[in-house]
Amino acid sequence: MEKLIYRLTMHRNKNFFIQKYSEEWYEIFCKKSEQKFRDILPKMPHIGESIFSFNYKFAPSYIAWYSTFLEMNVPKQEIDSNIWSMHENLVSIIPKNILKKYGKAYFNSFRKKAAAHVRKQDSVGLNPYDWQIEYQDLDDNSFEIIIKTCGFKKLAKEYNVEGLLPGICRMDYLFANMMDNGFERTKTLGDNDDCCNGIYRMTGSCEWAPEKGFEDRK
């Protein structure tokens, strides 16, 4: 799955990068990030069965892309924008009506599994790279997750790409917008707050609008 995520995203964004930079730039980026991805993937710790397993599979790609952007002297703000665009271009392959159905199905599945995740972390414990959370249902349509530890933040520190956050945290707004889910948050671990305090709504709306900044909606 990690290889599919990496290669499909790179393929989908070929024209985006060629138009933004150049064909030569894209070829160099491909070569450097591919080598980094291959180096990282076999070293990645496995977190096993987790409600965050799918999210975690993006980690080697994030690290490879971010470190390559840095090596190619792309400014921090531009790196965040590039990673957002890469995911928007990838997800836009999927028809809107299917995205909406997936969003509701994903959140329904998350709700069903969240209590078991909390029981596991409180009893036998989780893999050190898994996410530790608090969870509560708010009503039939919404729930809240308080994230106390984040696997991405630990990996970013280990691979010296701590600037990867909070940029990738903001994509929760992008995906909620694309899937017609409601989402709001005022704190993230990526912004060095004490937790991430996300409220999710299966039916709702969420503005993406990165041009407005992320001061009050982290």
Assign the CATH topology: H-NOX domain
Low-confidence stretches: none
Helix content: 40-55%
How are the strands ordered across the major sheet?
Answer: 1-2-4-3
The average pLDDT value, as a whole number, equals: 95
Going by CATH, the architecture would be Alpha-Beta Complex
- Ends: how far apart? 28 Å
Q: Helix and strand succession?
A: HHHHHHHEEHHEE
Number of strands: 4
Structural class: alpha+beta
β-strand percent reads 5-15%
3D structure, described in words:
- This protein has one domain (2-212): Alpha-Beta Complex (H-NOX domain).
- It contains nine helices and four strands.
- The chain has helices at 2-12, 14-20, 23-40, 53-56, 59-71, 76-91, 96-122, 151-158, 171-179; strands at residues 132-137, 142-149, 182-184, 196-201.
- Strands 1-2-4-3 form a four-stranded antiparallel beta sheet.
- Helix 2 (14-20) packs across helix 3 and helix 6 (76-91) packs parallel to helix 9 (171-179).
- The radius of gyration is 17 Å and the shape is globular.
Q: Keywords, please?
A:
218 residues; alpha+beta; H-NOX domain; 4-stranded antiparallel β-sheet; 9 helices; globular
Helices and strands, with pairings:
Blueprint: H1 2-12, H2 14-20, H3 23-40, H4 53-56, H5 59-71, H6 76-91, H7 96-122, E1 132-137, E2 142-149, H8 151-158, H9 171-179, E3 182-184, E4 196-201
Antiparallel strand pairs: 1-2, 2-4, 3-4
Helix pairs in contact: 1-6, 2-3, 3-5, 6-9
